[in-house]
């Protein structure tokens, strides 16, 4: 009481730094172990995908995708839009097929890249991260494309977005058949 004086009170209103709070939340998320983060994400991703928590828990895609987005999210709610493409069964909708066109590429070159990527992935005997990466890197050289050009086209084809979790791991989690269907569908959407 002796050290307190009304003159020492700052007349400016208190400020609550929401940006810092969101940043701090991201720090806490990155400190969680993957199993704990999976349990916390389950209701958010289920709601975003239009599934019940039980249905989401039965899906195989979420658990291996958790480490892929852990460094990229600051809130649990941010995970759903990053992962929603995993829970679309069948082909994706490409409302703007021009997004499938790679940087400094024509639509015809992008269609060729999509079809060649599909053929390269279909020919793999082992479908793991290393095989997918090696195959696509070799293909970019064969096609005379920079790797980022090819990966952009493939990324949009399999995820429907220009930004996604790491592509090679994403393709493996999606699985061979779903990835091949999406590559073919994207090539058809762009070719028409």
In whole angstroms, how far apart are the ends?
79 Å
Helix content: 55-70%
Low-confidence regions: none
- Specify Rg, calculated over alpha carbons: 22 Å
How large is the count of helical segments? Answer: 10
- Tell me the overall shape: elongated
Largest sheet, in brief, is: none
Order of helices and strands: HHHHHHHHHH
The computed structural class is: mainly alpha
The average pLDDT value, as a whole number, equals 94
- Count every beta strand, where a strand is a DSSP E run of 2 or more residues: 0
User: Which range does the strand content fall in?
Assistant: under 5%
Task: Put the structure in a nutshell.
The chain has 192 residues and is an all-alpha fold.
What secondary-structure arrangement, pairings included, does this model have?
Elements: H1 18-31, H2 34-49, H3 53-58, H4 62-69, H5 79-83, H6 107-122, H7 129-143, H8 147-159, H9 167-174, H10 176-191
Helix pairs in contact: 2-4, 6-7, 6-8, 6-10, 7-8, 7-9, 8-9, 8-10
């Amino acid at each position: 009481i002796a050290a307190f004086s009304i003159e020492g009170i700052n007349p400016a209103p208190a400020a609550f730094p929401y940006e810092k709070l969101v940043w701090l939340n991201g720090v806490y998320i990155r400190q969680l172990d993957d199993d704990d983060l999976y349990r916390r994400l389950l209701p958010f991703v289920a709601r975003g995908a239009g599934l019940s928590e039980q249905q989401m828990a039965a899906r195989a895609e979420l658990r291996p995708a958790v480490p892929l987005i852990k460094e990229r999210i600051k809130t649990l709610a941010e995970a759903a839009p990053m992962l929603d493409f995993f829970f679309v069964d069948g082909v994706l909708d490409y409302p703007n097929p021009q997004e499938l066109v790679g940087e400094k590429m024509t639509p015809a070159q992008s269609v060729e890249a999509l079809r060649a990527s599909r053929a390269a992935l279909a020919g793999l005997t082992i479908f793991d991260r290393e095989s997918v990466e090696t195959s696509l890197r070799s293909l970019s050289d064969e096609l005379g494309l920079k790797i980022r050009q090819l990966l952009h086209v493939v990324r949009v084809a399999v995820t429907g977005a220009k930004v996604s979790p790491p592509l090679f791991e994403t393709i493996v989690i999606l699985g061979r058949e779903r990835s091949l269907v999406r590559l073919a569908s994207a090539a058809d959407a762009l070719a028409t």
